[in-house]
Amino acid sequence: MSEEYQKYYVPAQSPWPIVGAVALFFIAAGAGLTVMQMGQESSHGHYLLFAGIAVLLYMLVGWFRNVINESHGGLYSMQMDRSFRQGMSWFIFSEVMFFAAFFGALFYARMLAVPWLGGDGNNVMTGEVLWPEFTSAWPLESTPGGTTTQAMGWQGLPLINTIILLVSSVTLQFAHTAIEKDKRGPLTLFLLLTVLLGLSFLGLQVYEYIHAYQDLGLKLDSGIYGNTFFMLTGFHGLHVTLGTIMLIVVFIRVLKGHFSSEKHFAFQAAAWYWHFVDVVWLCLFVFVYVL
């Protein structure tokens, strides 16, 4: 058996998994309470949400520091590197399944539930019984309660954000090519541009949400259209946030002189993830905004 298979570093027990679990619980509970308490005079959910985000950032800093120190300490072998690659691959696959569930819900609502409610197929009386005034169309801009909304068009901010993410994938690929050739200058420049583009995307998405709420009346409770719109775009925005954090960490490591043309899996893993969220956005742009 070769030496690369004989060494496999097993770290000591770590507090970071339980710290991350607590942070995610606070974030989930705080986000839910924040949405439920919108419009009320007394709202405390956002405090729990911010606390969860702070704990999560603390966990990320601590866990990243430990892994970086272990790597620079020469504790990782080629077998460990393969484990990292397999772990990242399965993580991205789980994210694919996560978004597949939401796109499946969108498909069910658009292609099955809405036509059925409009009397399609053998459900002629369904709409007459459940919603007599219902008109089968998508996007569904009215609710049984009588509230109406406007659809978010694909032009304007969504199109600009699509261009931003596409350009960010190009700049990240240039950075990847630079690190493989040990060109630190272009690597730093293109990686910085990718981070700035990611931050720009997030800023414009926040502005888009404000526009949706204030000008279009498009909210999370705006029927199935509002539900699917904010669930898909919101979770994608969360993944872009995570990807941007990963790229920022990698950028700081580049400034510190980390990585080489032979050893740069942390950069590669962040690049895999960033290209993944870009592909998800393209699907989201087509099926949520355009069609």
TrEMBL record:
<feature type="transmembrane region" description="Helical">
    <location>
        <begin position="228"/>
        <end position="252"/>
    </location>
</feature>
<dbReference type="InterPro" id="IPR000298">
    <property type="entry name" value="Cyt_c_oxidase-like_su3"/>
</dbReference>
<dbReference type="InterPro" id="IPR024791">
    <property type="entry name" value="Cyt_c/ubiquinol_Oxase_su3"/>
</dbReference>
<keyword id="KW-0472">Membrane</keyword>
<dbReference type="InterPro" id="IPR033945">
    <property type="entry name" value="Cyt_c_oxase_su3_dom"/>
</dbReference>
<comment type="similarity">
    <text>Belongs to the cytochrome c oxidase subunit 3 family.</text>
</comment>
<dbReference type="InterPro" id="IPR013833">
    <property type="entry name" value="Cyt_c_oxidase_su3_a-hlx"/>
</dbReference>
<protein>
    <recommendedName>
        <fullName>cytochrome-c oxidase</fullName>
        <ecNumber>7.1.1.9</ecNumber>
    </recommendedName>
</protein>
<feature type="transmembrane region" description="Helical">
    <location>
        <begin position="88"/>
        <end position="109"/>
    </location>
</feature>
<keyword id="KW-1133">Transmembrane helix</keyword>
<dbReference type="Pfam" id="PF00510">
    <property type="entry name" value="COX3"/>
</dbReference>
<feature type="transmembrane region" description="Helical">
    <location>
        <begin position="157"/>
        <end position="175"/>
    </location>
</feature>
<feature type="transmembrane region" description="Helical">
    <location>
        <begin position="16"/>
        <end position="35"/>
    </location>
</feature>
<keyword id="KW-1278">Translocase</keyword>
<feature type="transmembrane region" description="Helical">
    <location>
        <begin position="272"/>
        <end position="290"/>
    </location>
</feature>
<keyword id="KW-0812">Transmembrane</keyword>
<dbReference type="InterPro" id="IPR035973">
    <property type="entry name" value="Cyt_c_oxidase_su3-like_sf"/>
</dbReference>
<feature type="domain" description="Heme-copper oxidase subunit III family profile">
    <location>
        <begin position="4"/>
        <end position="291"/>
    </location>
</feature>
<feature type="transmembrane region" description="Helical">
    <location>
        <begin position="47"/>
        <end position="68"/>
    </location>
</feature>
<feature type="transmembrane region" description="Helical">
    <location>
        <begin position="187"/>
        <end position="207"/>
    </location>
</feature>
